[in-house]
Design a protein that fits this description.
Strand content: 5-15%
Number of helices: 22
Number of strands: 16
Strand order of the largest sheet: 9-8-7-10-11-12-13-14
Number of domains: 3
Largest sheet: 8 strands, mixed
């Protein structure tokens, strides 16, 4: 076997190249001996004497390192050690085998958990069949489920809280997921607080109530979903937050258990971020609709010396609705970009980005996404309705003059009237063709804006791509929409001003043209440079920071307690024009671009 080390009374050592010959005597990676134990180190094998007659199995790996040896007769110990080396599966119990209990149990089981689903009737074949498709779940009685885990998700209604055995839940983490069916007063205790009052020896955590059983059952992707979590016990809260992360959600610490009242109110809210934008857009729509009704149906009949033409009222359902949708869509699109323009002028006037915008402007900036989607809905509606009414009968400026034919038209059985009958066999003018093209480009760009505003699509874009779509393409959509409407409004004469009201295509241009004109000075290089420096943290000397840290460039600073904007409002009113003019005057004086300064003054004092 090659050279061996000395054999002493206590054992012997196999070193160097002799290891290979020594290991060749093993069978299937195991060495059998009836006289000694083997211990393999990194570079040698030490053999120690043992009691004769005790056979030993030594596991040998590829690096000639053994693990703990076990006697051949102790096969059960070998299996126990192998099981001990494997990481144990985490265990969680769900009390309640209803739709939500089964759905969340299956979702948790997918995260390498063993989930015991406690049911009042564990032998029910229907429930067993429903859970058979969810590997990792086990249907047991409620008492057994409570004994199996230290973390228990209570998926039963609040009416059943009193039936829960307190002696089985003592010292355990209870996750309450119950919701209310109707809104409740903030002064009333939440379901989680009531559960904590019934089980004071348990640690109750409010979580997962914002997830629906349908989304959990169908494995819908909700990776960005925030899970608000509240509890009075920090350890229990951390356990549940770790569980939420394992499920792929974003846990949000909402503090003490009393905040569960706000958490339970979340599922009962109906489009909270959409109420104000919807009211604004709906108000604009009805305003425009009543204005068009007054112009085309009422004023035309009042100003006419002939009897009322009641046939004009048949256009209320289609033509008036189409015009109203077009005007409101254009105004809404302009209102998506107007707050950004106002914010830019505000930062230029303040000379810093470290001041909060007024509350109304901040709210306006936050609702731009909702306004944009409502605009897209109105634009799509206008496109569909416009296709139905698109003909020379409705838009005479877009088509060449029809052919007039004089003919005798039968008025009744005995009377014939000579009339000129227009025959619309003509083609569109250049104005009409550009009108259609500009409108098609505008609605196409708004489609891209709407799609990229979806979280799943926006998350796949880089910041530069997202800003290119929402800013560059968005302004292009506004320009094309304004051009589309302007081509329709071009060519009207004074006779079209009924009751001193302009046509809908003309007054629809007021807001978008104002926004575009206000944007132009911001595109000038000198103004844009100053604005970008401010947004990068370079404050203008003497700029005020209300309630913010000093330093300007993002470094540490001391909190400066300046007078609030409300207290200084009277002083600022007298300095509004100098504050607005100062940054431009400095920039233009340095760059010599006085023409842009003149344009800015014109816009400032004209609008």
């Amino acid at each position: 076997m090659g050279k061996m080390g000395e054999i002493g009374e206590e054992g012997r050592t196999v070193e160097g190249a002799d290891q290979e010959d020594f290991l060749s005597r093993s069978r299937d990676g195991k060495f059998y001996s009836d006289t000694f134990d083997l211990c393999f180190g990194n570079d040698d094998v030490t053999v120690k004497n043992t009691t004769p007659g005790n056979d030993v199995i030594i596991n040998i790996d590829d690096d000639h390192r053994s693990e703990e040896g076990l006697h051949l007769g102790d096969e059960e110990k070998l299996e126990e050690n192998e099981k001990a080396e494997k990481p144990k599966k985490k265990v969680l119990s769900v009390i309640g085998s209803g739709d939500y209990g089964r759905a969340i149990a299956g979702r948790i089981a997918q995260c390498d958990y063993t989930v015991f689903v406690g049911s009042r009737d564990p032998s029910n074949p229907d429930i067993r069949n429903l859970l058979s498709s969810k590997p990792g779940t086990r249907l047991v009685s409620q008492d057994q489920a409570m004994r199996e885990s230290e973390v228990i998700l209570v998926a039963v209604g609040k009416d059943h809280y009193a039936k829960l055995p307190s002696h089985l839940l003592r010292g355990k983490v209870l996750i309450d997921v119950a919701n209310n069916t109707t809104p409740r007063s903030p002064d009333q205790p939440s379901n989680a607080e009531m559960l904590q009052a019934l089980l004071p020896k348990s640690q109750v955590v409010k979580a997962f109530n914002v997830l629906s059983a349908y989304a959990l059952e169908n494995s819908q992707a909700q990776g960005s979903k925030e899970i608000p979590i509240a509890s009075d016990n920090e350890h229990a809260k951390r356990v549940v937050m770790d569980l939420a992360r394992a499920m792929g959600y974003n846990p949000v610490d909402r503090g003490a258990l009393t905040n569960a009242r706000e958490i339970e109110a979340i599922p009962l809210k109906l489009l909270p971020n959409w109420k104000t934008p919807f009211r604004i857009v709906a108000g604009m729509w009805f305003f425009h609709y009543l204005l068009l009704l007054a112009k085309f149906q009422i004023c035309e009949n009042v100003s006419s010396s002939t009897p009322w033409n009641w046939s004009s009222f048949r256009h209320l359902g289609l033509l008036n609705a189409n015009r109203t949708s077009a005007i409101t869509a254009l105004w809404t699109l302009a209102s998506c970009y107007l707050p950004g323009v106002i914010a830019a002028y505000t930062q230029l006037a303040w000379g810093t980005k470290y001041r909060r915008f007024p509350s109304w402007l901040d709210a306006w900036l936050r609702m731009r996404k909702q306004l944009g989607l409502l605009m897209f809905a109105l634009g799509a509606m206008h496109t569909i309705l416009g296709t139905a009414v698109w003909s020379a009968h409705y838009d005479k400026f877009m088509w060449e003059a029809p052919t007039l034919v004089r003919a005798e038209v039968q008025y009744n059985d005995t009377v014939f009237v000579r009339k000129e009958v227009p025959i619309f066999d003509s083609q569109m003018t250049w104005q009409g063709e550009l009108f259609i093209t500009a409108g098609a480009i505008s609605i196409f760009l708004t489609c891209i804006l709407a799609v990229t505003s979806l979280p799943s699509v926006g998350a796949a874009l880089s910041w530069r791509e997202f800003m290119f779509v929402q800013s560059k393409l968005g302004w292009m959509a506004l320009l094309m929409g304004t051009l589309h409407n302007g081509l329709l409004g071009f060519g009207f004469s004074k006779e079209d001003f009924t009751c001193s009201l302009p046509s809908g295509a003309q007054y629809a241009l007021h807001v978008p043209c104002l926004v575009i004109l206000l944007k132009l000075p911001l595109l000038c290089p000198c103004v844009d440079r100053r604005l970008q420096r401010i947004r990068q943290g370079h404050d203008r000397p003497g700029a005020k920071h209300y309630g913010t840290t000093g330093g300007g460039g993002g470094g540490g600073g001391v909190v400066k307690r300046e007078p609030s904007p409300v207290a200084a409002r009277g002083k600022r009113r007298k300095r509004v024009q100098p504050m607005l003019v100062q940054p431009f005057a400095e920039s233009f004086r340095n760059n010599g671009e006085f023409i842009v300064f003149i344009i800015f003054r014109f816009f400032l004092f004209s609008f």
